[in-house]
Design a protein that fits this description.
Layout lengths: L21 H15 L4 E5 L12 E8 L4 H11 L2 E2 L12 E8 L2 E11 L3 H15 L1 H16 L5 H14 L1
Parallel strand pairs: 2-5
Antiparallel strand pairs: 1-2, 3-4, 4-5
């Protein structure tokens, strides 16, 4: 099955229950990405990679490239239809994030593709956080409560929301 990446539009931070279709979207995007550039490795990260975990409703991917191949990774994502961020304070182009939307089964999935060197410390940190959420239900519940609390405090700016939940992630 081919996949089409549509235009991304920024949206206020919000809370969504877990969508069991998110892993299938991540797999389709991983397959399309590695078909476009076989040296890339794609991992599903973030809340949508954790069965039962509610979150912002964005499918986060980690796109890993061999050292020295950042330009090839960005080019492959651009060719697939991913776009540069348009929010305030976008990730720098030395550690970019690309965005897009995928329509599937009558739903639209927002995608954040985090582009990292395969040997980057951040890659190991993102993987460890995902795996902790998967393996520790109490921690997952605390993380969900943190996200609800941020939104209840009136934070809707997506960058401010990410920064606020980063305090939980970095503090644990």
């Amino acid at each position: 099955m081919s996949i089409s990446i549509d235009r991304y539009t920024d949206a206020p931070a919000s809370y969504h229950e877990y969508d069991p279709d998110a892993p299938a979207i991540a797999r389709l995007l991983a397959d399309a990405t590695t078909a476009a550039e076989p040296e890339l490795v794609v991992e599903h990260i973030g809340s949508t990679a954790v069965p039962g975990c509610a979150g912002k409703g964005v499918v986060d991917l980690m796109i890993l490239y061999p050292p020295g191949h950042l330009a090839r990774a960005k080019n492959a994502l651009d060719q697939l239809g991913f776009q540069r961020q348009s929010t305030r304070d976008p990730f720098p182009e030395e550690r970019p994030m690309r965005v897009g939307v995928v329509a599937h089964a009558g739903k639209r999935f927002r995608i954040h593709a985090h582009v990292l060197a395969a040997d980057a410390a951040e890659a190991a940190e993102l993987r460890a956080f995902r795996d902790r959420l998967r393996g520790d239900a109490e921690y997952r519940v605390a993380y969900e409560a943190c996200k609800r609390s941020i939104l209840a405090a009136g934070v809707t700016d997506s960058v401010a929301y990410a920064e606020a939940k980063g305090e939980f992630i970095n503090g644990s």
